[in-house]
TrEMBL record:
Entries under PANTHER family matching the protein: GUANINE NUCLEOTIDE EXCHANGE FACTOR FOR RAB-3A (PTHR14430:SF5), RABIN3-RELATED (PTHR14430)
Keywords: Coiled coil
CDD domains recorded: Rab11BD_RAB3IL1 (cd21069)
Chain spans, region Disordered: 52-101
Recorded family membership: Belongs to the SEC2 family.
Name of the protein: R3GEF factor
Compositionally biased residues, Polar residues: 52-68
One GO CC term on file: Golgi to plasma membrane transport vesicle
Listed GO MF terms: guanyl-nucleotide exchange factor activity
Source organism, top-level taxon: Eukaryota
Residues forming coiled coils: 13-47
Annotated Low complexity bias: 81-91
Amino acid sequence: LKFSLVQEAHKMVREANTKQAASEKQLREARGKIDMLQAEVTALKTLVITSTPSSPNRELHPQLQSPSKAVFRKGHGRNKSTSSAVVSAASQNVTPEPVSHERKEVDSILFAEFQAWKESPTLDKSSSFLGRIYREDVGPCLDFTKQELSALVREAVEQNTLTIEPVASQTLPVVKVSAEGCGGPKKCALSGLPRTCKHRIMLGDSGNYYYISPSCRARITAVCNFFTYIRYIQQGLVRQDVELMFWEVMRLRREMSLAKLGFYPSEM
């Protein structure tokens, strides 16, 4: 009888472990989908923000296009009802833009590099446009104290396989490497400094989690936002005037520079 009870107990434990592993896998997949959707929302917000009373975005307001152009227009009609709602909301609930005292002037060299890249967009860093951004922004922004881990993070960001998730107070990390290398809730794995870490990252499907400080998270997020926008341009999802696209790239570059210098939002 005791042997049977022990067998039954082992069976129950195995089933519980299997269910837990399946649940954790589903949770990771769901969080990955959420990250993708958040990136899409950010890109869509960028498109909506560029539509102002003085300079309406003709992709969001097809009724403003000339009849000849409207005939040949081929849009991404993924959800016509949603698109109509966006257009309606943008046209009815127009709010004045905040007054900005910042002045801008296009740098002819940077703009020429961007235009040349946009003719045949690629993620190959050998292009003058991306090569410069790698040297001046991406590289420095992802250059952390722990060089080996920094290289892995950089590779995961480039391949779009890095996951960032909040750390639940009751969650224990599932790690396959030394705890020292993964940091902890009170130690950042990238800087090696004692910091309160509210987030952790996973590189690909390795199953290893690394705790990161708010500052390191801001730096990684800034680079990821840049690559997300670049990928959207490459895939033809951004329908804007080339100069507007250029200025969005410059804004994202500025975010990387600020993050590298240690500035980050309080909600990080």
